[in-house]
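Re: [help] complex structure
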Amino acid sequence: MLRIEGVSRRYGNTTVLDSVSLALDAGSVTAVVGENGAGKTTLIKRVVGLIKFEGTITVGGVDVARKGKDTRRMIGYLPQIPAFHGDLSVRETALLYAALKRVEGPAAHKRIEQVGLGDHVDKKVAALSGGMRQRLGLAIALLADPPLLILDEPAASLDTRARLELRELVKDQRGAGKAILLSTHWIEDVPYIADHALVLDHGKAAFQGPALALAASGVTGSRLFLRLNGSSPDAIHVLESTSVASDITRSGDWIILTCVAADKARVVEALVRAGVHILDFRVEEASIDASALKVHAADGARQ
Amino acid sequence: MNAIVIVARKELRDAIRSRWLIAFAITFAALALVISRVQSDSGGLGEQGFNRTTAGLINLCLLLVPLLSLILGAGAISGERERGTLATLLSQPITSTELLLGKYLGLTVAVWGALAAGFGGAGLLVSLVEPFTDIGHYLFFVVLSAALACAMLSAGLFVSVLSDNRAKALGAAILLWFFLVLAYDLGAIALALAVASSGRALTAVAVLNPVEAIRIIAVMSLEPDLEILGPLGAYLTERLGTAKAATLLGGAVAAWTVAPLAAAAYFLRNQDA
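Output below.
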């Protein structure tokens, strides 16, 4: 459905994207992962045809550079920060984009209701919250029931519940045979929502393969903050005896540690089993250590 | 529905909602009524009434129509870019040229609507008070104003495409207006006279400015001998002839309509959204 071959982009002497390639088939999800500035949005904007590029991108076999309008008919695009005309109502916005996508009015209303904006159709877009605007963007992306969905940081302004709903939506769309390309810096979400992952580091592909392989690589870290009930020395001992926690430090009542994103529950479980009473905990979003990823990839290659 | 028409409809609806259309229609109507009233007080409307009203309106409209059109055009693309909606629109099945043409069409219809409502309403009121025989010049003047609006909207859109944000675009548009409407007569014509004090040089200067071209066409319609224009008038009537001169000046306005729009489309197509 989507083929990206050797796509690069340079601003003067700075290379923002360096010869990235990707193939995405119908009924599969690829997550583009990376830190801010890694080139995720740049790559996605290339596919939509919003910025010029070197290389080749085809959607459904049609060249994006030559027939951008035709390829955009096959794409539902949700930008990182959906921007709509603030003076239009939700209904008017949906009808405007429905007309551009040649979708009938009733179908547009149906999409608005599907994303939970049915009670807000007469509200001005300017009066919508960030999350509601994200939903409106999603409704517009889905308007023409396109075979390729491109979602740029779709969970960025969503709360946890909405993120879970988004996972379901992605799952449903994949089940319906859609090809989905999404970018995210929520590493934890990747194994749940994507089949494949492309990790970008300074515009280069640092990892490309199954999403589960990325999760298992151990380079996706979470920072865990635990407030304990006066049993910190014991807890640190317990944590040090496990193999899942590292960089364990103490700051007042809090213990701070780093672990693989998928191992957070194992950390908590180890403490609870040891009889440590956890009063509170916080998780800092998972990050990816691209340098470790390269080492990991090199190790993998040697083996 | 065609993407150009969809964008044009939205632009027209925005113009009506923002009420500037009504405000300018009322301004145009008020100007026409005030000037016709002055003409009436100084000798009655009657046979030459519309002719005098038209003559009185020309200079005012040569100030107002370019200002309105340049500002509207300048805000069209830069405003979308500033709001982030340019990328949203261009991520849909529409080309940048279609978007530009849709905006141009919508704004043109909006300005024409303001001109028609303003001058049309005023003309109707004047004709109810005093019988008239010379409405032709008045209507021709309205058509010339509409043509000038087309050229200036096109220039405004060109400025808009090249500007990062709305404030820069509006600043550039006002500078362009100042140059074309106020400074051109003093600067360019003085330069032409200094370099070559001939009717031919003055004609060349006139076709390089759509405001000047429209002004001369308007004067030609009212005073075909063009004595009022001095050496320029003599060159246009004696060397070119009225028909050829009108074609040349009309062609200049048409070129001013097409060229900036084509350039704007080229630059927009080659920009990142």
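Chain B has one domain: 3-269.
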